[in-house]
Amino acid sequence: MKNQLVQQTKRAFQHHFGDPPESIFLSPGRINIIGEHVDYNDGFVLPAAIDRYICIAITERKDSDICRIIAHDFNDFYEFTISDEMIKAPSVWVNYLLGVVDEINNTGKKLKGLDMVFSGNIPMGSGLSSSAALECGFAYALNNVFNLNFTKEEIVLIGQKAENNFVGVNCGVMDQFASVFGKDDKVVMVNCDSLEYEYFDAKLEDYSLILFDSCIKHTHLTSGYNDRREEVEEGKRIIRNHFPEMVTFRDCSREMLNAVKDELSDKVYKRCLYVIEEIRRVEDAARSLAGKDYEKLGRLLTETHHGLSKEYEVSCPEIDFLVDETLKLEGVAGSRMMGGGFGGCSVNLIKTNDVRQVIDKVKNQYKKAYDIEMNVYEVKISDGTHQYKENEYSI
Ligand code: GLA
Hints:
Bound molecules: alpha-D-galactopyranose
Order of helices and strands: HEEEEEHEHHHEEEHHHHHEEHEE
Number of strands: 13
Number of helices: 11
CATH architecture of the largest domain: 2-Layer Sandwich
Number of domains: 2
Strand content: 15-25%
CATH class of the largest domain: Alpha Beta
CATH topology of the largest domain: Ribosomal Protein S5, domain 2
Radius of gyration: 21 Å
Strand order of the largest sheet: 5-4-6-3-1-13
Shape: globular
Low-confidence stretches: none
Helix content: 40-55%
């Protein structure tokens, strides 16, 4: 699958620009085991990069400041001058790239013109972070091609800031971090405040992680994502008025939250309750993963879903349906919506022997209830953003 994507991107480059590209980069999407909507709430997250990528074929233009970019999958083209001030374009895909250029220009490092084609096999709008893969893949490629000497952490932050400042989605750092720092067969536990991280073995013995795509597409430019951020910030401000010793949500207990309940709207109370509980669940989940207690891990995933659906209110009826139907079945340890929500995928921890029957039954029920063909992704946990070498092993 990876080779096919690379060959297709290379061919498109040669077709449009006449020569083969000088270099090729691959930047993956991500899954998240647990730790949802806490990356911007002082929490820990437990994501992993997957074997679905944005592929970038690129050649430096030594004689020019012009960038010519082809989005192969959208059959679209955009040209801009790298030394100009970056101004928002009408197409969202362009803004991910201009945002990255803008952030790099702000550091004072020098970029030059380039020719580029990109293409991908990460389903878009499904909560698998195709946008973070594009931002980080582009930043990583520019770093290499123009010898900018950014660290991997800096590339992650350039990607996140591009999305915050230029695209206008106030996302946390999880997706970009997972895309860049992903490792074969490992999930990475990230402290989203300090960016310290630790890898955990993701070989789940008799269990598999399977994604069910509701095919309800979303974009966080118009979902309630930015509103959620404002709601929890309001809650945090009020709690801190009473407990000035509280620096982050990690220092906040349920008792503290309950002590200020009267001053919070019902909505803000529920949002904060979710955050406090989810921060605790991620710590429990990391222990379960390390202790290979997959049934416990599954129960935590399911608790997270309940919180996301009822307290944080970022699920949707279709995903709730998928989760409910999945949890009824033999061999399912846990199920929950994944990513920012308002559509996208559920992530399911299922005994490997039962995966087929679970897929068949849930597909069937979903089709009956919503007349939608659910997509299923059996992803492999893989390495993060990297330069592709011709002899790279892949299937
Ligand atoms: C989106 C954002 C992330 C994170 C998740 C929810 O994917 O980009 O930063 O907040 O939602 O966990």
